[in-house]
Amino acid sequence: MPQVSLDELIARVRSGYVVSFPTDTVPALAALPEKADLIFALKQRSQDKPLILMGAKASDLWDFVAGDDRTPWQQVAKLYWPGALTLVLPASPRVPKQMNPSDPSTIGLRVPNCAIAQSILEQTGPLATTSANLSGQPPLRTMAEIALQFPDVLTLQSQATTPNIGVPSTVAKWTDQGWQILRQGSVKLEF
Questions:
Q1: CA 106 to chain CA centroid, nearest Å
Q2: CATH number of 50's domain
Q3: Whole-prediction pTM value?
Q4: pLDDT at residue 161, rounded to an integer
């Protein structure tokens, strides 16, 4: 796997490459949202399993959400972001169809609590992300594992500070009845 500097990783993801970087949960595969199909192909992932749009801060993500009353979502985001929580919300027309090919009406959003990830996302804007692994397999946790499984994915040269905890994010979806937990991770939501 080509290891590159932070600046090169940012330049390459901006030009359409798939990259991997640490987060506060598990290492991510990431690409521009309109290049999300590259991630689906790499992971051999079913089109009915959407990707997450990850941003450096909540304000980077709200334009991707439809609806006038965002109060319930923003309250939860204030409590748990940055952190290991993905919110699945109604998607605005700004979300590329490649992010969720089988149901473009929703989008998963997350702000990681990880300085390296936030630094990358501040410079690239929101990215399509998912865990670094083949679909159906456990998330990979080290750069060596990622190198073996995805030899063409670009990663950072220095991985001295990889704060990930190895547990994927909690995923909560907003429904007409309120929040529904789709996957329990380290964040325990209290409503």
A1: 14
A2: 3.90.870.10
A3: 0.93
A4: 47
